[in-house]
Amino acid sequence: MNTIQAIKIDVATQSVYIVEIPESDTLNAFYDHIHCNMVSHFHLDDYHGCYVDDEGFYNEHPGYWSLSGFRQPIAGNGMITGADVMGNTASVKREFIEWVKENVTFYKEGEVDLEPEIIFISF
């Protein structure tokens, strides 16, 4: 079985580490590691992206986290992977874990303002 290396942002242990997930079943691996039934994805750079619980603020999680440069805290665990030139899920670049460790902030329940922010943009 082929695997890819992903970065797990673990709110329960407030740690960031590499996990191996099956290349043939990444979606179910995301569900297992994030502890959710639906994921959302956002880009971190031209190669890396992060998967999170799409219903994170509606589900119970042991904590929250954020990355430098992003405005909104994230509820629950996150999984960061790479993407090849065809858009297929790929292993993270090994040095990227250090950037994540240096730029992640963990929060416990009650330490973040969970009020949604509405931003109006005019064209």
Automatic annotation (TrEMBL):
Segments forming domain DUF3846: 5-103
InterPro entries: DUF3846
Pfam families to which the protein is assigned, alphabetical: DUF3846
Protein name: DUF3846 domain-containing protein
Organism annotation: Xanthocytophaga flava
